[in-house]
Automatic annotation (TrEMBL):
Transmembrane annotation, as ranges: 12-31, 37-57, 69-92, 98-119
UniProt-recorded name of the protein: CKLF factor
InterPro entries, per database record: Marvel, MARVEL-CKLF_proteins
Topology in the lipid bilayer: Multi-pass membrane protein
Compartment list: Membrane
Classification via Pfam families: MARVEL
The encoding gene: Cklf
Keywords: Membrane, Transmembrane, Transmembrane helix
Presence of keyword Cell division: no
Recorded GO CC terms: membrane
Start and end residues of each MARVEL domain: 5-124
Organism encoding this protein: Jacana jacana (Wattled jacana)
Amino acid sequence: VDSGFPRSPRGFIKLARALVAAVAFVCFAASSSPGAYTSLAGMEVAITGLFFLLYLLKLDQRLSWLFWPLADVFNSVIAALFLLVCLFAVVVKTNKGTLAGGVCGLVLLVLCVVDAVLLSRKISIDGPRGTNTPAK
């Protein structure tokens, strides 16, 4: 277990994403919003939670067949694109629960962009990734 990960900037962003997505999910579910909003927030909670556990338990080092930071960047970018739908929830604002969920969704969109930027700084294309790379 990587006990320092939750206190790192990446860990804090992941945890914040999961919590804000959970709040958005509760707001959408309680206000009887359309299913797309509720399922989008629920999937974001699940996927972000899985990535958080992946890094917390250091499974990214054990499962080295996939370049996890790049997969995480793709997840953040695609989630940000899907979360643009929450803009419609803010514009329509059929009730206060939908409005609150939409605002949480827009905050979540910003957190996804920040997460993608932090992760993209970690990725190096031409740097060594493993022990099979010859020394220069």
